[in-house]
Amino acid sequence: MHNCECGKFEEITRDVPLGPMIHQIDRLMFRNLSSRVRAEGLDEVTLMHGWVMRYLYENRDRVICQKDIEHTFDIRRSTVTNIIQLMEKKGYVERRSVPGDARLKCVSLTAKGEENHLQMEHLISMLEKEQVIDITEEELDSLYRIMTKIKKNLIRIQVGGEEEEYASDNFERSERI
User: Fold this and answer.
1) Is this structure's pTM higher than 0.90?
2) Residue 146: which residues within 8 A CB-CB, separation 6 or more?
3) Which of 131, 151, 166 is the last residue of a domain?
4) pLDDT tens digits, residue range 124-154?
5) 113, 152: one domain
6) Cα torsion 129, 137, 165, 163: sign
7) Which of 19-28, 138-147, 164-173 is predicted least confidently?
8) At 149, is the secondary structure helix, strand, or coil?
């Protein structure tokens, strides 16, 4: 795995436990995207905000409530409330009560949020293309099948919770790659 302190790259073998390997790859992807976001002047947007904006953008033809965001990203209500409040303060989203049930809040992107989302999507698309440059379509298909199986196994064996179906259960290959 890439060691950022010394710049070395080591071939990944089965000696490396799966969890740390996935974590290292995730951190590298996060750092790459974060540096690109800062370089484009979008550093006020956290990656979680970016994911929420993407979800809202892709579902802009539906009414999306905070509960939908909790379920999609598997995060607590208080976390979603904090995320949405900060995004609302920055002008990326607006919240409205659902007609007939004032307790439910629907969330939608503002024009500023849509513009920011489109800029982020461009950066993500470039990064995704670069990170799979020497990987075949068959290898990518295998990777997504394997990751889906691992995720299902982890959901099935999680302690203290029942198996739940999440909207994000299946990793689907993005058409942008």
Assistant:
1) no
2) none
3) 131
4) 899 999 999 999 999 999 999 999 999 999 9
5) no
6) negative
7) 164-173
8) helix
Element (H, E) at 96: strand 93-98
Looking at the fold, whether 139 and 55 belong to one and the same domain comes out as no
6 vs 1, 2, 33, 53, 106, CA distance in Å?
Answer: 12, 9, 21, 36, 47
> From the CA atom positions of the chain, what is the Rg in Å?
18
State whether residue 11 is helix, strand or coil. Answer: coil
CA 23/CA 104 separation, integer angstroms:
35
Look at residue 54 and tell me if it is in a domain.
Answer: yes
Give yes or no for a contact between 151 and 168, defined as CB atoms under 8 angstroms apart.
Answer: no
- Other CB atoms within a 10 A radius of the CB of residue 111 amount to 9
Is the Cβ–Cβ distance between 53 and 109 less than 8 Å?
yes
Q: Say if 1 falls within a structural domain.
A: no
- Whether residue 63 contacts residue 77, with contact meaning beta carbons closer than 8 Å, is answered with no
Distance CA 24, CA 30 (A): 10
Note down the domain range covering 123.
18-131
- Tens of pLDDT, residues 61-85: 999 999 999 999 999 999 999 999 9
Identity at 154, one-letter amino acid code: L
